[in-house]
Amino acid sequence: MVKQLNFVGSARMPRRGTAMKLDKPEASAPPRLEPLHIPKSCDVLANHLRQKILDGSFPDGSLLPGERDLVDQTGLSRGSVREALRILEAEGLVSTRPGRYGGSRATRPSGTTVARQIALFARGSHLPLASIIEAREAVEPPIAELAALHRSDADLAELREIDRRLQQAHDNVPAYLEENVKWHCRLAAASRNPLLEAFMHSLANLIHEASTLHNFATDEVRSLVLQAHTRILDAVEKQDAAAARRRMTRHVQAYSAQLRNLIKQQDQGLI
């Protein structure tokens, strides 16, 4: 006698002669694709030419292929080629001269380019004067420290000459402010750090504008600035980096405090 097995939990076996019914799997949703972002052809060409300029494949001042040649070489439309060149020109990497003997020339970025872009950013963003002052307080003491470490005799001589012109221009405020900007920019050049130099060029010019607008360069302020310059230059000459940084810190903090106080008084209508 055969004992019947009982499969617990299993499905009942179908009768002989009947087809087994299988459950159909549930249909899964097709995978969702992410949006594709296809760059414009002008951006692709601008990126390619930008890399060629920055890596030196197109040396500074060299002519780029003309529009017709770029169309033939890349297979892009003339409109895309022109737009790519306009993008690079806006970035300061290409200078274009129209006419029969014109064309587009590669232009390597310079400190002047960086300084101009920083100044445009500050003006376009309507940065408050307080932000500009804070940036100067953060940047210029390290510049003085580096200048003391890396300055040459020529740097020191030129700084002394600018300081002499500053003293002569003490009673001529516009000339004094111009020479003051030159002094700070020349000190930044002595730091041998091109990025700090470019940054200082922008800050010095922005502070100069603020000093002019707020009639800040009083006789007392001009005298205090000259005294501070003398102390800073003495430290730079002795290549005492710590003293140069410390004295520049005192100088910019005192200058900033006076400028903030003057602006506050003007806002309150006290002067």
TrEMBL record:
SMART domains (alphabetical): FCD (SM00895), HTH_GNTR (SM00345)
Keyword list, A-Z: DNA-binding, Transcription, Transcription regulation
Annotated region described as Disordered, given as residue ranges: 1-35
The keyword Transcription regulation appears for this protein: yes
SUPFAM superfamilies cross-referenced by the UniProt entry: GntR ligand-binding domain-like (SSF48008), Winged helix' DNA-binding domain (SSF46785)
Domain HTH gntR-type: from-to ranges: 39-109
GO MF annotation list: DNA binding; DNA-binding transcription factor activity
Name of the protein in its database record: HTH gntR-type domain-containing protein
